[in-house]
Amino acid sequence: MTPDLKPPTRDEAHITVRDLTMAYGDFVIQHDLNFTVRRGDIFIIMGGSGCGKSTLLRHLVGLKSPAKGQVYFDGLSFWEAGPEEQEAVKRSFGMLFQSGALWSSLTLAENVALPLGEYTELSPAEISEIVSIKLALVGLAGFEEFYPAEISGGMQKRAGLARAMALDPDILFFDEPSAGLDPVSSRRLDDLILELRASLGATIVVVTHELASIFTIGNNSVFLDPETRTIIASGDPNMLRRECPDPKVRSFLNRGET
Amino acid sequence: MKAPEDTASGQARVRYTQPTADSLLIRLAGGWSLKDGIPSIDEFNQQITGQPLIRQIRFDGGDITQWDTSLLTFLTRIIGQARQQDMAPDLEGLPEGVRRLLELAAAVPPQQDTGRGAGHTTLLAQIGTTILRYLQGAPDMARFLGEITLSFGRLLRGKAQFRRADLLLIIQDVGPQALPIVSLISFLVGLIVAYMGAVQLAQFGAQIYIANLVSIGMVREMGALMTGIIMAGRTGAAFAAQLGTMQVNEEIDAFRTLGIAPMDFLVMPRMLALILVMPLLTLYSDLVGMLAGLFVAQTAFDIGTFEYYHQTIHSLDLTQFAVGISKGTTYGILIAFAGCLRGMQCGRSAQAVGQATTSAVVTSILFIVIAASLLTIIYQQLGI
User: A131 is in which domain, residue-wise?
Assistant: First the structure.
């Protein structure tokens, strides 16, 4: 991987979503979603609570299959691909779950080491070295032998990030990274995300409704509307805040003041 | 949200007057508190029935000394009723705070077509849904069985991903740590079989046959069955609770996004552990049961240790053991299957984990009962 040679954003589609409709049974959550995430984007999925942001993320990472429509990764249609191709695509993902979702029976070191052990031929000594580096990157050096239940929520989230980065993924997915974090930790996480994009060249997809984060890190976005149940705005959030024709979006991005 | 306290507040009072033919004025007064309950709107209904001319409802809340949610609830009922009758409620006369809260509550209309009607379903519809839900269980189970089979295939080809250490930990958890409870129950069962049998056999002077009764009974049936029931409650429930909690914490999703099959990583070691441990536990249970028989024979019926031993050895052959162990192993597979199935199917709440655990035990025991009957009949037919 030679990420530092890449400019942060190129006009190359990395993830393309076509006519995606998401539903639980008969209840349609969002319909006919169309958008493209370019390689190197920090792409924000935003919208009010309960509009289906997290559900959209679950569709993107292959946890839930769409009622209709397709998701393409580098031109490969995920839901039409065979199991082996799907596995290969998934291996290029790193995901940070809302709750961290660390495996509670494993120590932090084991959590980060597990994907490395499964998918690389590295020796245990090398793996443990990498684990230390990854934990140090998220500010958790020295916590290798702690269990998830023994550390704070913010630390769990950072450990989750270390695990998500274990395999140097192409695409990082973040589900509400700053939920439940104090403003300083939240800011640190944003800096970390920017740093990761700059240094790893990864494409980053973030579900959030934290305005501060949205404007600091996002360079592209979609806005999901809970009433019409589809995308009502897309583009650079800083631009949407000023120029979006839809008053709902402007109001959201300006904390209700238009 | 309380108006200033008034010492002489008194109870909530409602009076209805009709200043003009087409309007109804509701005078509200006194202290409105949830502690005193919510006044009924029956009187309001009486006022408006048979009065088709009334088109407007007005309020006068000037004498309200104190209010809380009880007033809001009362007003919401009245307003709802009035709107149904095509009357226009005019909130002008109400205290400022009450008006604002009512507006706030009406600001977001209820979400339509959420797929959950609050309405009542008929009994027939409920029966139908329940049956459909149960029927849906069968394909789910078949799918899970298929996934386990595929996972076994990967295991045999050496491609299944799980950690040896996990397998050993689970084995320790389901095997050695279950010994005390298995000992206790098996001893009790051996004791009961021996005692009940011996009392009958003694009438014919055939006490020595306690040994046959206990050994064949334990080895063929009771050892495996008792171990199965214990493991269903102990291990099946534990599997469902562990996997269910992992489901709630998104830990299973974390495996999936990494491309690690939870079937291989979580279900397979649990299946393997029970398959390896159940035959051993069954044998152990047989042994403890027979020791209990010996204890009864010696203490209550004066049969010597050597006699009992001799009689036991002669009554048993390897076939009996094979029958018992095959049953025990089958139960083990079924328990692991039910426990893991319910755990993986678990919803995303604390209550769902409880349901998954309960359901795992019930399903395991149901499976054990069905398997026990089938196997007994099959072995009988085969003459072994």
Answer: 98-168
**Chain A contact residues (CB < 8 Å to B):** 24-27, 58, 61-63, 87, 90-91, 93, 95, 97-99, 101-104, 114-115, 118-119, 163, 173
Query: Can you tell me the ipTM of this complex?
Result: 0.78
Distance CA B311, CA B319 (A): 17
Q: Which residue of A has its CA nearest to B110?
A: A227
Q: Is the separation of the CB atoms in B244 and B351 below 8 Å?
A: no
The CATH number covering residue B63 comes to 3.30.750.24
pLDDT one digit per residue (tens) for chain B, 384 residues: 444 444 445 788 888 888 888 888 899 988 888 888 888 888 888 888 877 788 888 898 888 888 888 888 888 888 888 888 888 888 888 888 888 888 887 776 666 555 565 566 788 988 988 888 888 888 889 999 999 999 989 888 887 778 888 899 999 999 999 999 999 999 999 999 999 998 898 899 888 899 999 999 999 999 999 999 999 999 999 999 999 999 998 899 999 888 888 999 999 999 999 999 999 999 999 999 999 999 999 998 888 899 999 999 999 999 999 999 999 999 999 999 999 999 999 988 889 999 999 999 999 999 999 999 999 999 999 988
- Which chain A residue shows the shortest CA-CA distance from B256? A63
On whether both A86 and A178 belong to a single domain, the answer is yes
Q: What distances in angstroms separate CA B335 from CA A186, B219, B267, one per listed residue?
A: 45, 20, 12
**What residues make up the domain containing B45?**
13-107
CA distance A225 to A230: 6
User: Which residue, A232, A237, A242, A202, is CA-closest to A217?
Assistant: A237
What's the domain count of chain B? Answer: 2
Q: B271 phi and psi, to 5 degrees? A: -60, -50
Could you tell me if B358 and B265 lie in one domain?
Answer: yes
